[in-house]
Design a protein that fits this description.
This protein is of the alpha/beta class. It has helices spanning about 20-30, 45-55, 70-80, 95-105, 120-130, 135-165, 165-175, 180-190, 195-205, 210-220; strands spanning about 10-15, 35-45, 60-65, 90, 110-115, 135.
């Protein structure tokens, strides 16, 4: 069975912007190997990419991050300001949390590394043309690592916050969260109500909490006391 030929009107049109001639040639060669995608313009700078986008209106823009005049992030913002429906894929050799955050905040549809395989690049172009958000395997793995690190960091911060409390402070916090008054806590712990109030004030200062309700909420969140609900 012969494969149906895709006409020019059906092809995904692409603009490639990179300041290295050899890299643009390599990207174009990979794209030209697909019969459903067509490169309609090449740019070597951010300003040139913006002008070409306005002229060609491609389905997908492939932008490098580091380009003269305007980098890929600035170029993304400028193109999206001109056309909010533009679909942009960042293709770069740079990876890092700062780059990733800037790419996402700028409104790009995808983030790929230049060492990605040909088939992965083509599939990402097709996905971006459909309006999907895409990330290459390397970028996805990096994002997962960042997420795990953030979760672990949050846990360590929780541990540090709890570690700031002395045994007596945790004991008083638990009794406060259980609804005991200062007088009742003083009776249970054989200390003066004034000492209880001093511990209460120290707890609020250490945990940056302004009232008793906040102390109760903190105790429940940190499982120092069980919720009554």
């Amino acid at each position: 069975m012969s494969r149906q030929k895709i006409t020019t009107d059906q092809r995904i049109t692409v603009l490639v912007a990179d300041d290295h001639d050899l890299l643009r040639y390599g990207i174009r060669s990979m794209i030209d190997s697909a019969d459903d995608i067509e490169v309609v313009g090449e740019a070597s700078s951010g300003d040139e990419a913006i002008a070409l986008y306005q002229e060609k209106r491609p389905d997908v823009c492939i932008l490098d991050i580091t380009m003269p005049e305007r980098n890929g992030i600035e170029t993304t913002r400028e193109i999206l300001e001109f056309d909010p429906h533009a679909r942009i894929l960042i293709l770069t050799m740079h990876i890092g949390e700062e780059y990733l955050n800037e790419v996402i905040n700028a409104g790009a549809n995808g983030y790929m590394m230049k060492d990605s395989a040909r088939n992965e690049l083509l599939e990402c172009i097709r996905a971006v043309s459909r309006g999907e958000k895409v990330f290459s395997k390397t970028v996805s793995k990096f994002m997962n690592t960042c997420y795990v690190r953030q979760v672990q960091s949050g846990r360590e911060q929780d541990k540090a916050a709890n570690a700031q409390l002395t045994r007596r402070e945790r004991e008083i916090l638990q009794l406060i969260a259980e609804g005991n008054t200062s007088a009742e806590i003083s009776d249970k712990l054989f200390i003066s109500p004034r000492t209880v109030d001093t511990h209460r004030a120290n707890l609020m200062s250490k945990l940056d909490i302004r009232n008793t309700a906040g102390l109760v909420r903190y105790a429940i969140e940190k499982k120092i006391v069980a919720s009554s609900s």
